[in-house]
Amino acid sequence: MNFPLTAAAVLATTFLVLVFIHSIFFRRSKNAVPKVPAAGFALPIIGHFHLLASNERPAHRILADMADKYGPIFRLRLGARELVVVSDSRIAKECLTVHDAALSGRPKAISSEHFGSNYASFALAPAGPLWREIRKVVVLELLSNRRSDALRRVRESASEKFVRDIFRAWLTARKKGLSESDDVFLILDMKEWYWKLVMGVLFGILFGEMHEEDWSGAVATVKKFFSLMGAQVVGDYLPWLRWMDIGGYEKEMKGAAKEMDNLMERLLQKHKSEKGVKSKEEEDFMDTLICHFDCGKETVDGFDADTLVKATCTTLLGAGTETTANSLTWALSLVLNNDSVLEKIQGELDMHVGKERLVNHSDLNNLTYLQAVIKETFRLHPPAPALLPHEAIQDCVISDYRIVKGTRLLINVSKIHRDPNSWPDPEAFEPDRFLTNEHKEVDVRGKHFELIPFGSGRRVCPAVSFGLESVQLGLANVIHGFNVRRPSDEPIDMTEYGGLSGGKATPLQVLITPRLPTRIYLNLKHVT
User: Fold this and answer.
1) CATH number of 33-522
2) Could you read off the pLDDT of 395-448 as tens digits, one per residue?
3) Residue of 440, 387, 385, 443 lying closest to 417 (CA atoms)
4) How far apart are CA 103 and CA 111, in angstroms?
5) DSSP strand E in 119-248: where?
6) In degrees to the nearest 10, what's the CA dihedral of 201, 207, 208, 209?
7) Can you tell me where the transmembrane regions are (predicted)?
């Protein structure tokens, strides 16, 4: 008898039996943790995709209704992808603290591929070396305390130009009306004016000065770019249909991405040609990025220096512009629909700022009621109503449900912010709720999960403080510098549009007259 052969056969058989027993045991223990409950009305192939395909209602509103029916955590099948939707602050906290690392991925998407320079954008990139490196550069070189004074100077300069330009438009309207009266009201679409303000701030910080003639093209490019970011592309969920480009979204994305890349390339080459000419104080963030990647430092994940510089600036410009402009538009809309709130803000501004100068950054800490108004605006209209989607990079258990690797996760903060268990009378605009003991200490920086407009955990927006101060200053300058009112007795239309940012669907037309002494405006540069 061949004993070595027999022994080998016995060992092999024993090994296979043990593997079989282990697999049975493992499968049973794994299946002991149930999957997240699925929503009803799934169709073959497309799953629940048809339930979200509405041109009339934003997706976060549809998902909020589904949460009322299926509970605070439920599962959707969107074609070949599984999506878990969380609509509860307790579960959101578990996701973004206990399982923060496991859920730190970003799902691949056609929009991320084109608009993120094939995932060179740190906001859209998977958790990894590129994301860590670029985020570190942004935090240390753009958002650190040592850079705060430079950022404030740019923001206050842009705010001054904003007030000056509105006053100049009012002067022109008065001259055309052949009137010397200060009671002539100017009709403005504040959505467009806030876009100009935010673009001025971000262009100043990222790229330095920009000529006026370049503005209209840049604004149009950024608007097109961001509007397509939130498009529901069939190819993302049914990859085998991507070649058909149903709806033509990918073709539009390629065109918009090309326009944005051309804009960034022009700015990049301009900065390179000026290298060594600017003083350290004159350098902007693109200068800093060029130095960081060109001064003997290795590129990350195979991306060359130019790609990383352009992708990072594109991310910051795209992420900061529409979200901030939308927040300002919502804030002013809510205030104009509530006369008592407008009067309280004006009273606070007159007390702490007076009427002999414009509002500046140093005033913001004293404007506690204005801060409450901004918090309440973020509660009702968060910059990203459902945050950017996460993806599980490893298996985990959330709220006693099994989440497998590759599952996508959406946190519907809009629904969380309107939870009656956290917020009495949740649909009402009540800034005073943040001045009471119950919510006085609640802030928006990701520590209080009943209010997380900027997210939380390792994927939290790194520019929370900057964005918050920008909205506070932008609202304060309009209400302090001008008498603002609705064009009629009808309330401002508060209809939302879909997409990532949930902006106001209709223009915000207002009537404006100067509120400060004329000499204050005339002392601003270039007022005639």
Assistant:
1) 1.10.630.10
2) 999 999 999 999 999 999 999 999 999 999 999 999 999 998 789 999 999 999
3) 385
4) 20
5) 186-189
6) -80
7) 6-26
